[in-house]
């Protein structure tokens, strides 16, 4: 993943699997895997189901690319073990665990049309406690392909509607891990996400409302080793998206 240097989670996934395609929308990404859409693709974060799908779209902007350690993609018959909403496949995004006393990762990109992407990850280890703090910011002024707009059954010039609307979003996240002993590990995580989308109204008002939504959630859990390969995992999580 470090060698790929993708600008977003969508670019990471597209590079890992050519059968994954994305189409951006105001509320997130329309995803297709092997010809099937979001309804049949299960996205998980550290083995937990990702919440926050709106209108058949998954907003992957709430994930910080700098906090991702690896991505597992399960396709075919094996994905059916996860239920009917995983017929196309399962995408499990594994976030980073701090392995050094102090670890800092930063990725900044600036492009045309006011495109700014900033990803920051800060890891710290104190005794048996490990912490990874992340911050992610993304902004675009938007752009358009043409000033033509369909109105009264004909194309008319002069529209200010954009192909991609002006938008901003940011995410803050925290992940804690406590190794109680050689057998028991406890963990806790939390995140907060906000997104604004400013939709141009154009010469003919079709889109009178801008978008604003946010997500915050937390999870706690633990892992108990029964042997070298066997273990028990228990966790509870809460997400609020609106």
Automatic annotation (TrEMBL):
UniProt KW keywords: Receptor, Signal
GO molecular function: siderophore uptake transmembrane transporter activity
Any single biological process term in GO: siderophore transmembrane transport
Keyword Signal: yes
Protein biosynthesis as UniProt keyword: no
Residue intervals of the TonB-dependent receptor plug domain: 1-90
UniProt xrefs under Gene3D superfamilies: TonB-dependent receptor, plug domain
Membrane-spanning residues: none
InterPro entries attached to this UniProt entry: Plug_dom, Plug_dom_sf, TonB-dep_rcpt-like
Identification of the protein by name: TonB-dependent receptor
Native source organism of the sequence: gut metagenome
């Amino acid at each position: 993943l470090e060698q790929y240097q993708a600008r977003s989670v969508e670019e990471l996934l597209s590079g890992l699997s050519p059968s994954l395609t994305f189409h951006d929308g105001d509320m997130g990404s329309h995803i297709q895997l092997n010809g099937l859409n979001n309804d049949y693709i299960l996205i998980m974060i550290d083995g937990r189901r990702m919440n926050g799908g709106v209108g058949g779209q998954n907003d992957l902007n709430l994930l910080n690319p700098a906090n991702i350690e690896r991505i597992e993609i399960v396709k075919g018959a094996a994905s059916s073990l996860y239920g009917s909403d995983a017929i196309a496949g399962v995408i499990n995004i594994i976030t980073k665990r701090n392995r050094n006393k102090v670890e800092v990762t930063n990725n900044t990109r600036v492009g045309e049309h006011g495109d700014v992407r900033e990803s920051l990850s800060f890891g710290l280890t104190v005794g048996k406690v490990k912490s990874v703090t992340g911050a992610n910011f993304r902004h675009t002024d938007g752009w358009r392909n043409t000033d033509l707009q369909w109105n009264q059954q004909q194309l008319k010039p002069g529209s200010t509607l954009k192909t991609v609307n002006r938008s901003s979003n940011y995410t803050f996240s925290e992940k804690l891990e406590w190794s109680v002993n050689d057998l028991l590990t406890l963990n806790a995580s939390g995140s907060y996400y906000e997104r604004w989308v400013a939709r141009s109204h154009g010469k003919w008002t079709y889109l009178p409302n801008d978008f604003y939504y946010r997500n915050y959630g937390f999870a706690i859990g633990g892992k108990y080793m029964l042997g070298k390969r066997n273990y028990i995992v228990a966790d509870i999580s809460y997400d609020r998206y609106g």
